[in-house]
What we know:
Rossmann fold, five-stranded parallel sheet, alpha/beta, 5 strands
Amino acid sequence: MITGYAYVVADLFHIGHLKHLQRCKENCDHLIVGVLTDRATMEKKPRPIIPFEERIALIENVRCVDEAVRQETYSPLPNAMELDVDILFESTSHAPDAIGEAQKVMSEIGGQVIVMPYYDGQSSTDIKKKIVREWKR
């Protein structure tokens, strides 16, 4: 059985999240999804609008997700190593140095990294900006 690990903030869950998780699942038998805590998210982004408990409940109930876990750091590496996954899914939206580090670590533990496409125009940040623009009209 091939186990994959993807990770998301999942604030304002949208079609980009769903497509990403579905494509990840196509590459593994068991998909574990790390949901970033508020603190982990704020290492690189603003605090999520949706509370963590609600975000993880949403991810747990996505059909292609086999398991949802708490991710305490922005980096997925601690969870990927602890869970001993075969594949770590990264995104083309992440910094090349972060992807390179992930490839090195996964190679050391006998796994691999698959870099998944980022869906331009499908981001929680863009949705939040659009709401603010529309609300100001």
